[in-house]
Amino acid sequence: xxxxxxxxxxxxxxxxxxxxxxxxxxxxxxxxxxxxxxxxxxxxxxxxxxxxxxxxxxxxxxxxxxxxxxxxxxxxxxxxxxxxxxxxxxxxxxxxxxxxxxxxxxxxxxxxxxxxxxxxxxxxxxxxxxxxxxxxxxxxxxxxxxxxxxxxxxxxxxxxxxxxxxxxxxxxxxxxxxxxxxxxxxxxxxxxxxxxxxxxxxxxxxxxxxxxxxxxxxxxxxxxxxxxxxxxxxxxxxxxxxxxxxxxxxxxxxxxxxxxxxxxxxxxxxxxxxxxxxxxxxxxxxxxxxxxxxxxxxxxxxxxxxxxxxxxxxxxxxxxxxxxxxxxxxxxxxxxxxxxxxxxxxxxxxxxxxxxxxxxxxxxxxxxxxxxxxxxxxxxxxxxxxxxxxxxxxxxxxxxxxxxxxxxxxxxxxxxxxxxxxxxxxxxxxxxxxxxxxxxxxxxxxxxxxxxxxxxx
Length: 457
Known about the structure:
Blueprint: H1 14-34, E1 42-46, E2 49-52, H2 60-74, H3 77-90, H4 92-95, H5 103-106, H6 108-119, H7 127-145, E3 148-150, E4 156-158, E5 166-168, H8 175-183, E6 188-189, E7 195-196, H9 198-213, E8 232-235, E9 242-246, H10 258-275, H11 289-310, H12 348-365, H13 370-383, H14 426-443
Antiparallel strand pairs: 1-2, 3-4, 5-8, 6-7, 8-9
């Protein structure tokens, strides 16, 4: 169980965040010197060098989006130019990609970041350039929303790259694309010119995820523990009935893959912030704002509470809460995670995502959420130091000891080790930068950082 540092303040982390941005710049520059577009989207490091890994194209937005976060945090113009140019030249196929559930990762991290920076006055205003970004974001949101399967109960979900039967935990974080497209006044036009609200699909997907991918200790099955998360839910496409939980990257359908849990934690926390910006009438067909907020909060709090109870004392989780080798680690929940053990790898990328979730949820709840915020800050403090923050100038990764796909054995196992360790991934590096930017802005009393742009209040 995580041990909170209840005295930690935002400003206390600024020296470590500054050091992180220095390392981040070096990592980004190194990648830029060795990568070319012909190599494909970079995914994770092997022996300290970023490599591609064919599966689906879901990480390129993190690569270019990281340069934009670097500019946002430091004002170094070269990173703005790099992120903007690569977005213009290489991201268009991601906007119209009909085969993935990852539009919120790829396109909001690039086109969305550039739009936000312009609206915040961080880059010069250009009406034509802004219209270009917004057209990309409208299209991305509609394409994402078109990947739609209906359930037997009349609900629905954005289906994963596995096909129309598959609801992934990850996808709730990709609701970012629907959110921005809706803010921009866009919709999805379907067969016979049916006009489909992107907000309706966002809310429906979030509700279906809550009903099937999140457990609440209410007796749903033998393994129904409050806050536990199933990576995937499977449905019979003949009639839309729910069949069973599954997992692509976790140990089993009945244990919690911790990065899947982190995606859900962060997705609900972000969507609560986004929905707060909408007028009350937007929720009329959903029973009102209070009803929607209530079930989103139920899911957010349950998953965050489970994460905090199952995670080692420093906030860095092992890759799955039911990973079989954990039995050899004794009382691992009540001491810091050990990425150098011989049995099961940790996943620092899950911690980076979860830290942001906890900070955002805590701030959304106000004084009632102080423990969540402190937990997120405690975790960030852990990630900004060794052994997680990379100190090796020859290593291109920023956040070490992350895991991609343990069941497929894709992650690099160094000589002399029995498990993967010491490597980085695009989403882990990106989310460390993102949570650091969030805390940096809070510490400096700068505009609150959200994916959808300047907040109204």
